[in-house]
From TrEMBL:
This is Uncharacterized protein LOC111595516. Gene3D superfamilies: 2.30.30.140, 2.40.50.90. A zinc finger (C3H1-type) spans 390-419. The lineage of its organism: Eukaryota, Metazoa, Ecdysozoa, Arthropoda, Hexapoda. It comes from Drosophila hydei. It holds the Pfam family Tudor_krimper_1st. Residues 390-419 form the C3H1-type domain.
Length: 634
């Protein structure tokens, strides 16, 4: 293969990338439109309305299918990067965790007209400063490094997007390497504006889950030059050599089309450099192929916007949805380097570090489940433990280990054993034993065998749930079979709990809790494969002997077809309805082709053998060349 072949492949790659970006953007717009339609109609349209249910199921299956593709695509990209097929490491700021389509410039208000006012002129001999840079008359040992002054840099306007580099960057000439924390500590930051006990509005720029802290920025009027740099509205000078360790410069993020300030702190293991984004609080990796710029000194000397905060009343892992959004914080401690803050409610449900709810927020249903508790008690043990231990009434205080009894002899009716150490109790709470019956899943079915199935749910154009006819009958209970005591929970059901759920046919079926938000439970019917949102009033407790029985809904993928990248959401919904009209609640024979990580690959037989061809002809799906490809694209 010569360079012409490589150029053709790269050109095809660029076209596919552009096409993928366009399709993803259009798909996001369609998904957002359908979601808004569902939100507007869901509250005042009955759940029995087939159009709304079909729209909901179509959106769910479509997004699930796209997620599967994106997971596999990201996996393949990471695998190719890990074997050095791609040399560029990810140099862009942390991507968004929240569902909405935010960008790195969200919540950063940019007013170009008000940004024309110049800052105080600064000499050009200054790099990243350790001490507050009031002026540049401070001695050089107060700065990290001196920037070369042999020639005045020539700054020019930026035209976005910026094409990739054609040559590699030269290595830094000098400077002192520092750790990640030392880099942050030495930076001059805008931390003086965070007054203790005050409430401030900030933008969450980065979540450091590993160190359980967040980075926030105020983005005040003084930050306008930094905003203009991010938006590419400032004159800069492109560099062909990486600046010294500790010098502030700018790097171009091609995906977000922003230009953030950055500083290199050390060499990275495995090659490249570890760098820190001053205004995001994120550590990134740089190599020798980025597009970098020298920036004016007045922008370089501005304080770093990212301030490290330790949140007392919220777990950082639960704050992903606030990335690049404005929030309110109460400053508890300002150490001069970082902050301790309290996260204030911004209209979103708080996810507190404590797992218990406050009494004021309990619903009437939750209050009914609480056992009656005395308003107060003078007994310290009952106040702490919730009950009074009976050790003193059961165990003899005169017990002598040498005698294995007490001086009363056989006349003592108390228990002769030592008390628990450190004042603990030996009281034991008896619980019901697990059922004697042991339920095990059947042996794996032989590949190539023909089995009879009953289709219970169609999940997507390539996926359905079915029951094997030769297994035990599905479990179902009428309202009379479920006692009132089963409907009263001592505690609210938790994630992955097995329950009995009341369906719209007034019968109870086994289900598993897979999500809980604001008192609504998302459940998965383990014997049928469909999901539903219900309240606790539609649930009942499921005993162990019932919950331990094997789930009878088998996840099956249709052999010979895969989801079409060109199919619209409407076509996917039509395909699901088409399959429902042909397969739902029908019994027929299928052949087991192969095992997949989450189910079986099946082949339709007899009168259903032409069904995949009909789906392909209608443009709902695409054919696969072999079973392996199908397994990779489901």
């Amino acid at each position: 293969m010569d360079m012409d072949d490589l150029s053709s492949i790269l050109a095809l790659f660029e076209r596919n990338v552009n096409k993928l970006q366009s399709n993803l953007t259009a798909y996001q717009v369609e998904v957002d439109t359908v979601r808004r339609t569902l939100e507007q109609s869901w509250s005042h349209v009955g759940r029995s309305d087939g159009r709304i249910i079909s729209l909901h199921d179509g959106l769910l299956s479509s997004v699930n299918a796209v997620n599967e593709y994106m997971i596999k695509l990201n996996l393949h990209i990471n695998l190719n990067r890990s074997i050095d097929i791609l040399k560029n490491e990810d140099t862009k700021p942390t991507k968004h965790y929240n569902k909405e389509n935010n960008t790195n410039l969200d919540s950063i208000e940019l007013d170009v007209h008000s940004a024309n006012a110049k800052l105080d002129d600064q000499p050009e001999g200054c790099a990243l400063q350790l001490i507050t840079p009031k002026n540049c008359s401070i001695k050089s040992n107060q700065f990290m490094y001196d920037m070369p002054t042999s020639s005045t840099p020539i700054f020019a306007p930026i035209v976005l997007p910026i094409p990739p580099r054609q040559s590699k960057l030269l290595a830094p000439k000098g400077g002192r390497q520092m750790s990640a924390n030392e880099t942050y500590d030495q930076l001059y930051k805008n931390i003086g504006s965070f007054v203790k006990s005050s409430v401030v509005q900030v933008t969450v720029m980065h979540l450091n889950i590993a160190e359980n802290c967040i980075f926030v920025a105020k983005w005040a009027e003084e930050s306008m030059p930094v905003k203009m740099l991010l938006a590419g509205q400032m004159t800069v000078q492109m560099l062909d050599q990486l600046p010294n360790f500790g010098e502030v410069f700018a790097v171009y993020d091609a995906q977000e089309r922003i230009i953030p300030r950055v500083v290199i702190n050390s060499h990275a293991e495995g090659g490249g450099y570890d760098a820190y984004l001053l205004d995001y609080g994120e550590h990134i990796h740089l190599d020798d192929e980025e597009v970098i710029f020298a920036i004016p000194n007045e922008v370089k000397l501005l304080p770093a916007e990212a301030i490290r905060c330790h949140v007392r009343n919220r777990e950082v892992a639960s704050m992903c949805k606030f990335t690049y959004k404005k929030v309110h914080l109460r400053v508890l401690v300002n150490s001069g380097n970082d902050l301790e803050v309290e996260f204030l409610d911004d209209g979103s449900p708080e996810i507190r570090t404590s797992s218990s709810k406050s009494i004021e927020k309990l619903s009437p249903e939750d209050l009914k489940m609480l056992e009656p508790v005395d308003c107060g008690t003078s007994n310290a043990l009952k106040a702490v433990l919730g009950y009074i231990p009976k050790d003193d009434q059961r165990i003899c205080r005169h017990y002598d280990p040498k005698l294995k009894g007490c001086f009363k002899g056989s006349n003592c009716r108390l228990l002769h054993q030592p008390f628990a150490p450190h004042g603990a109790t030996k009281d034991v709470e008896l619980v019901e034993a697990l059922p004697e019956s042991i339920y095990t899943a059947g042996a794996p079915r032989e590949l190539g065998s023909i089995v009879r199935v009953l289709v219970t749910y169609v999940d997507s154009p390539t996926q359905l749930y079915a029951q094997f006819i030769d297994e035990a009958l599905p479990l179902v209970w009428s309202k009379k079979d479920v006692s009132e005591s089963q409907c009263n929970f001592k505690r609210s059901p938790r994630l992955l709990d097995m329950v009995l759920a009341l369906y719209n046919d007034d019968c109870y079926y086994r289900a598993q809790i897979i999500e809980e938000i604001d008192g609504m439970f998302k459940i998965f019917y383990v014997d049928y494969g469909n999901t539903e949102f219900v309240t606790i009033r539609s649930l009942a407790q499921c005993s162990d002997d019932i919950s331990l029985k094997p789930h009878q809904a088998n996840n099956c993928f249709i052999e010979g077809v895969k989801c079409s990248l060109m199919a619209t959401q409407r076509q996917s919904s039509e395909c699901v309805e088409f399959l429902k009209s042909k397969l739902l609640n029908s019994e027929f024979d299928v052949m087991l082709i192969s095992y997949l990580p989450d189910g079986y690959l099946i082949k339709f037989l007899d009168c259903y053998a032409d069904l995949p061809k009909q789906m392909i002809k209608r443009g709902y799906v695409e054919p696969t060349t072999d079973n392996f490809e199908h397994g990779e694209n489901i």
